[in-house]
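assembly run, all chains below
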Amino acid sequence: MERKKKIQWQPVLLLAPAILIVVLIIGYPVARAIVLSLYKYDMTNLQNVKFIGLQNYTDIFTKDDAFWPALKNTVLWVGVTVTAQLLLSLLLANILNKSFRGRGIVRSVVLIPWVTPCVLISLMWAWIFNGNYGVMNEILKSLHLIKENVAWIAQPNTALWVQIMAMIWQGIPFFTIMILAAMQSVPRELYESASVDGASSMKQYFYITIPGIASTIVSTVMIRLIWVFNNVDIVYTMTGGGPGYSSLTLSVYTYLQAQKSMKFGYGSAVAIIGAILMSIVIFIYLRITREQGGMIDK
Amino acid sequence: MKEKKSIGTFYIPMIFFLVTVLFPFAWTFLTSLKKKNEMFAQEFRFLPAAPTLDSYRELFEKTDFFSNMWNSLVVSFATVLIAGIVSFMAGYALSRYRFRMRNALMYFFLLLYLVPSTLLLIPLYTIFNKMGILHTQLCLIVAYSTYSIPYSVWLTTGFINQVPFELEEAAALDGCSLAQRMFRIVLPLLRPALVASCSFIFITSWNEYTYANMFTNKASRTVTVALSNFMSQYNIRWDLITAGGIVVVIPVVIMFVFVQKDLIAGLTAGGVKG
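ok done. output:
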């Protein structure tokens, strides 16, 4: 590939539009969000925009009733969702990795939630779990698991769980695709020689498959962590964070500050705190998983 | 390859997954065929007693759903066009040239893919407002293109890596320019892959809600926002939601089923390597 050396201005020109757009529309706004977070900047009160230093941040930590519940919910929302997605996807990938008739169709079908709009996912599950007319209540009643209708979405101790379930449902396909692809790249000979040596399929799974797909799991879990953390649509559409703050997550809280209260300075501060917390989590995560062959080393 | 497939570890979980995936769609579809009084009847029935298309009729005749769909269509197509061209160029450069910072750039694109949209929401709102394009389709096109570029650069680079460079070398010897090589040799060979990644850009733009809800008004509203607006605090129109949901999801699912093979190949090929 030496012949490419003398024409190095070409990649610059080819890359310029992508880098330019991305820097303008992502880089500049990130900088602007940091600046905004230091201001009192309410869209409803633009005469009274003023620099207030870190006051938004101290207010969030000390005076805000919603922040701490939102943080707790975010930990649940991200932690439970991604863990469940990982476990269920491992199971599903294992099934789809076998050869059976109709595998192509089954694969296409189980991937559909991935391309379904999150708003629709939220609405569909809201309808299923509707307290008065929801089919879930009918199913559970006919199984004698509950006696009377439960208002799943309207009561504080269940609302977040319905949303977590919807998010798990949404995320399994992407996870499964990645794991499946990784499983298929594990050399077949390893299994063959293991069988010759008399290793059970359980043993083969834990000693060949899991190590073989570990790096994919690490990188996919990271993508999902960030993804689930960032997701606004499901919670916002179903409950808007309610009842009370019972299903509020940090991303939804930021969104409400922007969309409903129009408090742009305060909202930016919440968004930045969220982004920093997430970065710390990712940093620790990558540190821990590094020895297992994390994506950064590759 | 022949494997033992037991009921407990194979068929039961598979049926469980299939039912779980399909049930919400099935229930939404069944609901959309019901009459309004049946939807909210005291006595529960699973199937519609007398299937009717009333909900769909009302959706298209009495609401702006057609123009919402049109808005989504325009925004999504424009995004595909911009993001597609820009990331084809970038992907070509990243695949064909070796230069310092190349790997750094690949990671840079990957990281951008993960910037929280809520962090950008507020600054973008003020910027679009200042530019005077807030509440137009243009601001969604700009936002979506930007969000699609990192991802599709990643995909396209992986795709172009699979096209042998020798083809281009031969063409270059025959006097083909860079543009000719890109568009007459690489592009045609990549067609299925590019169709897949463009479809994915289309699908994500069509499905987007967070920005669309903030940056549009009645005239520029997209389908996802329209759908969620059927759910207002006091009056939840489940008839319109279920019918609209089916209408919104059908084009996406059809598109996806056609391209999923190529899309998955690109997604898992790992454009970040080497």
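Chain B has two domains: 1-52, 58-269.

Chain B touches chain A through 86 residues (CB under 8 Å).

not gonna interpret more than that til we talk
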